[in-house]
Amino acid sequence: MAEKVDQKKRDIGNKARMLFIYRYLTEHTDEDHPASTNELIEQISSKHSIEVDRTTIGDDINSLINAGYDIERIRSRPNKYYYDGRVFETAELKVLVDAVSSSKFITEKSSKALIDKILTLASEHDRAELRRNITVEGRVKSDNEKGYYIVDAVNEAIENKKVISFKYADYTAAKEKIARNCGETYYVSPYALVWDGDYYYLVGWCKNRDDMRHFRLDRIMQTPMICEKEAWTAEPEGFNLSEYIRHVFRMYGSGDPVEVDLLCDRATMKSVIDQFGMDVETEQVDEMTFTAHVSVCPSPTFYRWVFSWSDKMKILGPDRVVNEYREMLRKALEHN
């Protein structure tokens, strides 16, 4: 009876041995840090109490390679092996980690958890290198822990063409979070989720305003309800998400876009390109100045951007936009 039990343990060990080898290689090795046959023998025998020798290690790795697993062999005395099937390069993982750590939409707690998951895609040695350069604490972060659930609900509503309802957050002068517009419930037919300026936005048709609107997801106060009775509103004819993002999100305005002419100092060219892209329509006036023809939804944010350049940028037209800008400046001067 004891002999049968021992044989059963050996059979289980033989079946698991290959999996343990594969897991060790994926977690701890890369091209610069291969594992020797002796190292694999030590790991499998000491950590898992499985009898193993050079022959079984070689046979198991040959089986893994023949099955299509990305394991490379360095022939030497002893042989060395490493896992070469990583989907992401270290530099690519660095970009993902930095995006998560800097994202204002994701809370500090969720950022750390998501970064830990991303790091599992790297080898042990690359994980250590990546961790040394991660900074999450001290960054401006959302306090809305329901972020992932909100994304899931909006995605489901977009997929099934359903209306969602939610309350939208605002703040008092005492930094108290309250529901905007006296607790009004918004009903929105969602069309897309847009990432812009480290925040996630919902773009859709707002039934309350009978117009296109965008909402920051971290300001949605609870997981949106998916409405079964409310009728979904189809996207307006001719609606183009890319154009909407370019006109509205670049300057965070609302309403219809307006064609605006600017007179700019050449020092502002980088900022103009950053805001409107390389295809922005410009014309050189002289060595020091140029005009830019841009399409924006005029808003305080647009006017603040123009003002930030002081005498290096001037709104030429249309008159309505010029007058709005002057009125904003007048009110600011009177207030101070």
How would you describe the overall organization of this protein?
With 336 residues, the chain is α+β, with helices and mostly antiparallel strands. It has four domains: 2-83, Winged helix-like DNA-binding domain superfamily/Winged helix DNA-binding domain (Arc Repressor Mutant, subunit A, Orthogonal Bundle); 90-131, no CATH class; 147-239; 258-335, Alpha-Beta Plaits (2-Layer Sandwich), CATH 3.30.70. The protein is 43% helix and 22% strand. It has twelve helices and 14 strands. It has helices at 2-28, 37-48, 54-66, 90-102, 108-119, 124-131, 147-160, 180-183, 241-249, 269-276, 300-308, 319-335; strands at 35-36, 71-74, 80-83, 163-167, 169-171, 177-179, 185-196, 199-206, 211-216, 225-227, 258-265, 281-284, 289-296, 313-317. The strands form four sheets. It has a five-stranded antiparallel beta sheet. A four-stranded antiparallel beta sheet has the order 12-13-11-14. Strand 7 (185-196) and strand 8 (199-206) form a beta hairpin. Helix 1 (2-28) crosses helix 3. The relative contact order is 0.07. The model has no long low-confidence stretch (mean pLDDT 87).
